[in-house]
Amino acid sequence: MAEDSPTASCSKAKSALLAAGVAHHANGLTKSAGSATFTNSKPGAAKKLVIKNFKEKPKLPENYTHETWQKLKEAVEAIQNSTSIKYNLEELYQAVENLCSHKISPKLYKQLRAVCEDHIKAQIDQFREYPFHVLFLKKIDKCWQDHCRQMIMIRSIFLFLDRTYVLQNSMLPSIWDMGLELFRFYIISDLKVQSKTIDGILLLIERERSGEAIDRSLLRSLLSMLSDLQIYQDSFEQRFLEETNRLYAAEGQRLMQEREVIYSLEIVDDMNFIFYQFINLFIYLLLNLCFRKPLIATVEKQLLGEHLTATLQKGLNHLLDENRIQDLSLLYQLFSRVRGGVQVLLQHWIEYIKAFGSTIVINPEKDKTMVQELLDFKDKVDSIIDVCFMKNEKFVNAMKEAFETFINKRPNKPAELIAKYVDSKLRAGNKEATDEELEKMLDKIMIIFRFIYGKDVFEAFYKKDLAKRLLVGKSASVDAEKSMLSKLKHECGAAFTSKLEGMFKDMELSKDIMLIIQVNGNNSHGNLDIIGSMVRLQEIFKTFYLGKHSGRKLQWQSTLGHCVLKAEFKEGKKELQVSLFQTLVLLMFNEGEEFSLEEIKLATGIEDSELRRTLQSLACGKARVLTKIPKSKDVEDGDKFSCNDDFKHKLFRIKINQIQMKETVEEQASTTERVFQDRQYQIDAAIVRIMKMRKTLSHNLLVSEVYNQLKFPVKPADLKKRIESLIDRDYMERDKENPNQYNYVA
Fold first, then answer.
1. N or C: more exposed end of the chain, with fewer CB within 10 A?
2. pLDDT digits (tens, 9 = 90+) for 696-737
3. Residue 145 CA to chain centroid, in angstroms?
4. Surface-to-core class of residue 559, CB atoms within 10 Å of its CB (0-12 exposed, 13-18 middle, 19+ buried)
5. Strands 696-698 and 653-655, how do they pair?
6. DSSP assignment string, 131-176
7. Alpha-helical regions (H) of 1-88
8. How many helices (H) and strands (E) does the chain have?
9. What are the two backbone dihedrals, phi and then psi, of residue 594, each rounded to the nearest 5 degrees?
10. Which tens digits make up the pLDDT trace of 261-278?
11. Which three-class secondary structure string do you get for 557-581?
């Protein structure tokens, strides 16, 4: 039935027509004779055929059009009735071409359409009264299959018409499309027929969902029919979505009422899997990928989307309390599929963190374990975000906001307890953890530290505890102390840590040697490498000390310190008062003239950022005892350093980047009271600063601006007292006409 067969036959027919010098063709056409002649007819010579155009255009005999159409009509009706065709298909194809060549195409197209229309009209009655049953679907499918087969054969006969006249008239449907149009109009668009067809298809789908075996080829054929007839969306898709919506709405309601949340989620996941299998089948049946998305969305909406809040209220806290990672992962995956699901989960996530965190902070009975519980809780929520919530940035930010909210519900106390927790860990040092573990713990502490508002409270208690550690020599790790100060400086700025850094004090052990190194045979500076020169100096001082103090035991201080090194430049000898890190670096130049950054790092073992700062102080500061190549303010990879023989300074003893260390032993009766006093000064300063700039402000505006500037919480009553105090001290005054307004007093 392929369209190419008639075309091939047509070519053969035309060749035969041209080659034969007959007066009349089998189909009745008349043309001039003698249109072909032979030349060069000598004996033994090849004959040459010369073909000339007709002198006159062939004419159709009388009644040719009528008789030819009758043949074509009989052939069409034979195809429609599944009987044998009396005429040769090549002859029929040629007849169509002849009619089209003589401009009878419009009439021929109308006649063909009328015959097809009459046949299709006659089919409708058998379906209108046919009872609804699966047999009805088979009958309508057979009618459709027969129609398609018939139109293919009919088109093969009328192919010349389809490819010339129809193709040149864009308003006319092709012969195939004409057949679809007629079938759609007279058969499937009939209300009774369409209703029974769609109901039958939905019945097959419902049976498939229920696990029954159905005729999938029948279902595929019917769905393809709807698609080919372009009524799939209007007649079937909406009905199918409604049925799917109804089915899964009932199932979703049942799950919420009968099951615990996790079992409901597992069933939803299983049902989704089963449904996806069905969707894949549906796509196989119809090859309609566009319909997959609304179908899946309908199922997920009814199984889960309508029950988001109920699901979370029923079991989220339980899953989080028990840290059920696998179940939480399933929860997130399912909620991610539903529109708005992640946002609902996010809100409940925030509320859970606030509620659980508040139980840790608010209860005074938990003060002893508060910080450790906060650290454990933070580790837990971090793990859930990473593993279960796919590191979703919204959940990370929400967690931070929730921590900041609950941890400040109890002002000052968390800050105090965090400072004491750090003190206990730094005192214990390597007894409880390795240097690496201690460093990780300090990092975690700093994360909690960021959430608290009362950082000045932390500073006060940390300062007091630090003083005690240094005074009694109980700091177990010098590097840990420095690391903690570095972290605080990074978080709060240099102003915050300047007082703490000043508490480290040099301890003079000798005029020429000031080495604060812990000895009992080991180096206490973490991964620092006390190079040969330092060890020799240590032994020299040990000999010197024992010679001066016979019978005494040498006690080395386990705290930070400085060294005084003698150095000789072109200008003369100088004494350099430097830190331990600076000492390690400078002593290397007794062993060589030039070293790269990488060589110094390898030899000393100083941490990279600390080493860069150390080298920067020696080569880029005011007292440049080292020369750096290339010259720049910063230390970069590959930089090389050498001793600056041309170094000059008016002083004999030079302090390079010396950290001011003052040992304070004053007793503080109440650290909290001191914090309160410090806050009063900050409040006063903020008020005066605002009034000096604004000159005149109402009470509410002043209070609002003060709150914006302060980094710690203040009660309205305390703020009012500070305003009154400044009025009494003539920094500001109340307006005489409006007592709710303040004026700045210059």
1. C
2. 989 888 888 888 888 777 788 888 888 888 888 888 889 888
3. 50
4. buried
5. unpaired
6. PSSHHHHHHHHHHHHHHHHHHHHHHHHTHHHIIIIIHH-TTSPPHH
7. 4-19, 64-80
8. 31, 11
9. -145, 135
10. 555 455 555 555 555 555
11. CCCCCEEEEEEEECCEEEEEEEEHH
Inter-residue contact 305 to 339 (CB < 8 Å): yes
∠ Cα 668 671 677 (to 5°): 105
Q: For 366, how many CA atoms within 13 A lie in the half-sphere containing its CB?
A: 14
Count other C-beta atoms under 10 Å from residue 560's C-beta.
24
Residue 336: name the closest of 245, 261, 265, 436 by CA: 265
pLDDT tens sequence across 420-468: 899 888 887 667 778 888 888 889 999 999 999 888 888 888 887 887 6
CA distances from 200 to 26, 184, 211, 294, 603 (A): 52, 18, 17, 22, 85
Characterize 338-362 residue by residue with b for buried, 16 or more Cβ atoms within 10 angstroms of its Cβ, and e for exposed.
beebbebbbebbbebbbebbbebbe
Q: Which of 450, 307, 326 is nearest to 383 (CA)?
A: 326
User: How far is it, in rounded angstroms, from Cα 595 to Cα 729?
Assistant: 62
Annotate 721-732 with DSSP letters as a single string.
HHHHHHHHTTSE
294, 339 Cβ separation under 8 angstroms: no
CA separation for the pair 672, 670 (Å, rounded): 5
Q: How far apart are CA 295 and CA 240, in angstroms?
A: 9
The pLDDT-based confidence of 16 (bands split at 50, 70, 90) is very low
Q: Give the count of alpha carbons within 13 A of 164, CB side only.
A: 17
Round to whole Å and give the CA distance between 531 and 600. 11
b/e map of 426-453 (b: 16 or more CB within 10 Å)?
A: bbebeeebebeebbebbebbbebbebbb
Tokens 């730094």 correspond to what residue?
426
User: Are 659 and 579 in contact, with CB atoms under 8 Å apart?
Assistant: yes
Q: Kindly state the tokens that stand for 609.
A: 């950022």
* Cβ–Cβ < 8 Å for 222, 184: no
Looking only at Cα atoms, what is the longest distance across the chain?
149
Report yes or no: 302 and 251 within 8 Å, Cβ to Cβ: yes
DSSP state at residue 554 = P
Q: Average model confidence (pLDDT) for the chain?
A: 77
> What are the φ and ψ backbone dihedral angles of 577, each rounded to 5 degrees?
-95, 110
State whether the Cα torsion 76-82-85-88 is positive or negative: positive
- SS3 of 642, please? strand
- Strand duo 594-596 + 640-643: pairing: antiparallel
Q: Which residues pair with 491 in a beta bridge?
A: none
Between CA 287 and CA 502 the distance in angstroms is 77
